[in-house]
Amino acid sequence: MTATAPGPAAGPARRPRAPDPSRAVADRPVDGSAANAVAHASDLGARIAAVIIAVAWHLTISLPAVLGVGPGMAAPPVVAVGWLVTAAIGVWAAVRLLHGGLPPARRLAAVLLLVDAAVVAAAGERYLFTSANWVWGGLVWFFLLVLWRRPVWWLLALLGAHAAIALGAVLASGADLTRYAMSVYGTSSLPVAVFVGAAAIAALALDRARTAAAVLAVEAEREAAERARRDRRDRLVRAGGAAEEVLAALAAGDADPADPEVRRRCVLAAARLRRLIAESDDVPDPLLHELRAAADLAERNGLPIELVVVGTPPELPVEVRRRLADPLTAALADARGHARLTVVAGPDEVVVSLVTPDHDGADATGPPVVDGNGPVEHVHDRDGEIRWTQTWWRRT
């Protein structure tokens, strides 16, 4: 048996159809695994909750306080402008978060700190611990929005700056430090808990989803292995039955070893057993390995055979490889004189053809046939000079 380098192969009157490289399968876009989808859904729920809290606080608590500012406030317009700037930042950040993006954290955080300092200064000593100084409890929720999915120390640093600004105002006015400490704790603890909790829940959901996906994958592999084992056992029984039938006939004297038909049956049974064994080998090109196994057996039985390979076959399921190789194996068992086995492969198409001289006698594969049912087509024909068998697989 000779194997030629990939290149154009001379063929019979009816040439096998070669794959078209221009029809290669395009890479499909990957949207992410199911585990990532679960984590994204969990994170999206937390984003919605954070946006709702920030907007509700800004509209139902901070806005009435700004509108009801009384006399004694240092600069009421500054307080109102700060509220509007914060509202604009909140809307922008909310739109980004709800559409799967993240706002520019550093720039927005810097603007919010400027608003914080301006409003605290504009509120004055009299309104320092009142709702009119709305940045005490309302601004921290906007910190959450602009720092979403960032490291938690970013939020802690921003809250520290927020507390330092308030501490400066408290020290300047001589206010009660105990009240200041309680206010800082009360306004910061819940946002930190929401921020950390959302990240933890998303990470936990991702881990659980990955674990479930791994368990399902192992179960699917186990079921596939069990199904493959049953299929292989059934094929071995069928192939072994054919060999057993021939051997029993020879042992009983009912078959003559010199009879060409008996010899053909022996060769066919041996070729099927050989291909069945090769089917489970771990090799880079399983289809070529199985075809070479059949060709080696034919050559050992005295048939000169030439194997020509053009291209590299893609990974194919066992059933597809079997339907590509079985008709060629049967045709090789009936071949006389010499044979030419050609494999033409591309990313989404594989054509296997066998050409042998025609001779008297019935075809091993039956009468001339064209079988287009299923994922593999099988064509067999003879014209008095050659016998031509072809199997063809195309990705759908």
Largest sheet: 7 strands, mixed
How much helix is in the residues?
55-70%
Proportion of residues in β-strands = 5-15%
Report the span from N to C terminus.
34 Å
Radius of gyration: 39 Å
Note poorly predicted spans. 2-32, 365-370
Tell me the total number of β-strands: 7
- Determine the oligomeric state from the structure: single chain
Shape: rod-shaped
Mean pLDDT: 75
> What is the count of helical runs?
9
**H/E topology pattern:** EHHHHHHHHEHEEEEE
Strand order of the largest sheet: 1-2-3-4-7-6-5
What structural category do the secondary elements indicate?
Answer: alpha/beta
What does this structure look like?
With 396 residues, this protein is an alpha/beta fold. The protein is 60% helix and 11% strand. It is built from nine helices and seven strands, in the order βααααααααβαβββββ. It has helices at 34-67, 76-98, 105-123, 135-146, 152-173, 177-252, 260-279, 286-300, 318-333, and strands spanning 2-4, 305-310, 339-346, 349-357, 369-371, 376-382, 386-394. A seven-stranded mixed beta sheet has the order 1-2-3-4-7-6-5, with helices on one face. The longest helix has 76 residues, at 177-252. It is rod-shaped. Residues 2-32 and 365-370 have low confidence and may be disordered.
